Amino acid sequence: MNTLRFYKVTTICLLVLNLGGVAFLLFLREVPGPLLHQMRGRQFRAEVNNLFGMDGPQREQFEQSARKHHQSMRRAVTAQRTQLRAYFEAATLNQDRATADSLLGEIQALERAKVQVTEAHFAQVRTLLRPDQEAAFAQFVNRALKIILLEDLPRPPKKPRK
After folding, report:
1. How far, in whole angstroms, is CA 19 from its chain's centroid?
2. Phi, psi angle pair for 15, to nearest 5°
3. Kind and range of the H or E element at 152?
4. Most CB contacts within 10 A, which of 37, 74, 78, 107?
């Protein structure tokens, strides 16, 4: 009787474990946004290392530049979100055109700052490279732009037409 009970309990435990695994795969198909962003950043840094074949000091300087760029971009994006919300509230809900125009100028300034920070980061990366690594710089910029412009994200499947 003990053996029969052992097999029942084991079977039930394995069934629950399998159902849990299936549920995990079904419900967590996509990686959450911030985690996906972190994974993409780490993966890209590894790609850059492989692309250029950076030595220790180059890698450290690149990591420092990348962190500084990331922090600047996060500050700008956070400020831009706040300004965009205020802009649309002023433009659509409050019908306050003067405030909306002022906010639009601030939003444009933030976007300009993001572009300039990224351009400076690219220039700084270029200064880190040895002459034999220069040839891969264009490939680095193209790959970075795909990430910045979100061109490398998986696209959701298209819905079939009815």
Report:
1. 32
2. -65, -45
3. none
4. 107
pLDDT band at residue 35 using 50, 70 and 90 as cut-offs: very low
pLDDT of 110 reads: 93
What is the tens place of the pLDDT at every residue in 57-106? 998 999 899 889 989 999 999 999 999 999 988 888 877 788 888 989 99
pLDDT at res. 65: 92
Rounded distance between C-alpha atoms, residue 127 and residue 57, angstroms: 13
pTM above 0.85, yes or no: no
User: DSSP secondary structure string, 94-151?
Assistant: S--HHHHHHHHHHHHHHHHHHHHHHHHHHHHHHHH--GGGGGGHHHHHHHHHHHHTTT
Q: 65 and 121 in contact (C-beta within 8 Å)? A: yes
Q: Which two tokens stand for residue 6?
A: 């052992």
Both structure tokens of 98: 């003067």
CB count within 10 Å of CB 54 equals 19
